[in-house]
Design goal:
about 300 residues; 9 helices
Amino acid sequence: MRNIFLLGLLVCLTLTDCDSGSKRSAMIMDYMVKDSLMKDSIMKVEAATATLANDINLNTKTPADKKFVKTADLKFKVGNVLYATEKIEDITLKYGGYLTYSNLQNKNENYNSSKISRDSLLIAKQIVVVNEIQLRIPNERLDSFIRELNPLVVFFDYRIIKLNDVTLQFVANQKKSDRLKKYDQRQAQHIDKSPGKLKETSLAEDKLLDRQNQADDLQMQSLSIEDQVKYCNLTINIYQKPIIVKEVIANFDYVSDLKPNFFIRAWDSIVQGWWILCEVLVFLIKLWGIALLITCLIFGIKYLSKLYKRIK
């Protein structure tokens, strides 16, 4: 519309003044070019700044010869927390994971109390439904699991992924376990060969028991690492749009007070009497049709009685 207006103005100026029209038309054309360039630059800036993260896709592929402990923390807004929780639990079972913790609750973020009468209060609360879910998902299926959460996301807050390389720790524990196993075998043979020396045998058995306990601890650490490598620890925090809840409750501070004094009761009586009077007046006003009919009948009867007397 602006370009059409400027072209029309250019034609008018050209017809009215041929000498000065060329200069004016050149100025107008220059303005149109600058305006077009300005619009293009604004559109490019807006497109460049529109980089808000809106999904939680993930790619955690790792080398096959290494062992990684993966942990992930997600937080995002959903349309309905209860529905999203059920959906997340279903997806967890689908990918061979399991739930370890779920804390679904209604959080009161704002609370306001207003006195609407001496014995009543209006309570307004802003409630946000939230849930913290802790899951264990097979590491090789973590990326696919997180991609299936995208349809639930209304607003994405953050995604934290941690990969801890435990390859060397796993190998070190394995070597220590092998050494302790060989030591146990040698120590057991030494105890069997010297049964006559009770004191030495007791000390050797104590050392053997101590090493066996160390071997058990190393084995438990190795099993724990294997379990963490196999399953990722995933924490998901979800929330939804706040809900405003209003309710009227009794003002117990007023109810628990002593009986009001005479002046308060007198004023309450005046107010209640005024309400009764207003209700009576409103009721009488509603009967205006009947009152009009009765008035007409009275005047009609009087008129007929006068007319009857004149005729008689």
